Amino acid sequence: MRVLWTHNFDPRILNKGSFMHAAADGLRARGVELHLHYLGNLRSPLQLWRAGREIKRLSRRFDLVHAQFGSACTLATAAAEGVPKLVTIRGNDWATHNSSFGFHYFHTRAAMKFTRSAISSYDCVCTVSHRLAAAVSRVVPTARIVVLPSPIDLSAFVPRNKLDAKAALGAPMCTEKWVLFNSVDLHSPVKRFQLAKAAFDLAQATRGGLRLRLATNLPHAAIAQFVAACDLILCTSESEGWPNSVKEALACDVPFVATDVSDLSVIAAQEPSCRICPADARVIAANICEVLAGPQPVGLRKHVEGMSVDAITDRLIATYQSVLVDYRVSRPVTAGLENAD
Prior knowledge:
The protein is an alpha/beta fold and 341 residues long. The chain has helices at 18-29, 45-59, 71-77, 103-118, 130-139, 162-168, 193-207, 220-228, 244-251, 264-268, 281-293, 309-330, 334-338; strands at residues 2-7, 33-38, 64-67, 85-89, 124-127, 145-147, 177-181, 210-214, 232-235, 256-259, 275-277.
């Protein structure tokens, strides 16, 4: 199977699109001939037109094309011809930023408009969460939707002894509770780091003995031990598809205190150590204190065991095969000829 992935995750930014590369490695390990094509900056009509022309040219060499993000990436990839097209909607390409008036306010609205205008051109829409699937279905009720979270490496992200993990990171015999905040961009108003910092400071003032740990600008290979050493992960995002940082924390049996994004409320309803809060620093701080006052949770990993690289690779290949069969059935004469070199 020959597959073209299009994306706009800038390779110059550390950890940008790391989840995509993990999924790509899974497919290649199964013998899928996969080509990743970075579309570059698509902020001008000329750049978008050039990207679409390139995808139209490239697409005939492949069995199917899969856009790894919505927004302008979806518009450019819609130019593919003679092959079935899939798109993965990840959250920031569907939701809008509303809490401040500036670049992100307009950018997220443009991204959503681009995604929605192109989505009907696709044979299958993959979403990273059930909540996002429901949102897409309300807007495009005829869309073929498959829920496929981005995979995580469950062999790397494992529960570890907290004292040992902290000692390995240069903090031997550390008795502080580590609160993790993970974001590629701490200045993103969607991630709301200032809200997280305010909540942490209130929790620190209430109980003390805390340390805020920022997983920013760390090599991805170093993140697993860093996450496992933490006692809680804090997610204060305005919107998320399925935050990979929270998946990785759960795989290490690290609980979360989070705003109501993605499918996290489903987990919080089952786990007393995981909390969903309004975007209020005092409420978030109180929940941080309550969670850290309780016993160290176990068994949180079960909520992400179906998101391993192997499991998601199985489901992705099955989705590709199903889409290909349906595409060929609907185009019995041309499907084979359109891919001929």
